[in-house]
Amino acid sequence: LKNEGAVNSAKLKNAVLGMESGELTFFKFYEQFLSDYEKKVNSGLRVNGTRSKYKILLKHLRNFALTKYGYSDVPFNDLTPDFVQDFDYYLRDDQSLTHNTIWLYMIGFTTLCRLAMSRKHLAFNPFSEYKNTKKDKDRGYLLRNELEQLVTFNCEKKKDELVKDLFVFSCFTGLSYSDMKGLKNSNIQDFFDGNRWIIVRRKKTATSSNVMLLDIPKMIIEKYAGLSKDGKVFPVPSNTVCNDSLKRISQLIDCLVEKKVTFHLARHTFATLFLSEGVPLESLSKMLGHKNIATTQIYAKILNEKVGKDMQKVSHKFKGMEQSFVSQL
To answer: What is a GO molecular function of this protein (predicted)?
Structure first.
């Protein structure tokens, strides 16, 4: 502290906590994690979007530590259940973040703590007393007749036609935008069963996703063969360009005018469409590349809710029969 001029409260606390002696602290550990993660992004093993979320989480943690405790860094011993709960309150009350956004950041925070524990930097689990679950939100999807309308729609612009074809391809394979963008010809393989399959490892979860190609996606692959560089299957525009095109297209199709059609809607459409056609939940989970089947079960819940709403819509048609039945009791 002598060589650093004026002594402020933050410097004094850091010195007392031993955080200026060069020892590994949580934020230094976090920076190392980000550096390693960036290498995985550059090599195509992880997606940049997830890295950005980790960077934002670190910013929130730094601001919280400085605001709540006056720390510019945090020793591992200070990562306690109280620290975790107070950070939740900080995100909820001070930053006014939504419940599911907080849930997402806490998943990232948990990942860092588990990694620190596995490397013996952290002696106990600071999340041992913390409970938080994601709130279900309405996952939009296209009904079969809506998808048929989209498939047969003729686009005036070539760019819109490309985006429509990519969207339809995703509806029949369940691939996300990032997985579509990274899809290579080497991922399309002929299997012993005589069918062609997509064999990929999902960037988001690093889990395998194997999907048999039906005729429509096969035709889309053939349509764009040889138009991409670096062995890619498709010339995929940016996500923003894709969503802008889908918005234009949906406004020209009567049954889609009221729907918010984004590229990710295709993945939800794949899940609900093939689940409703009788594909077992376990098979669907493998095709979607979900780590946990509980994630896939969300789609089954959506379908059950729709069945209930559909039954309510037709229930009034049986009122007369019900009254006749009651009169005979």
So the answer is: DNA binding
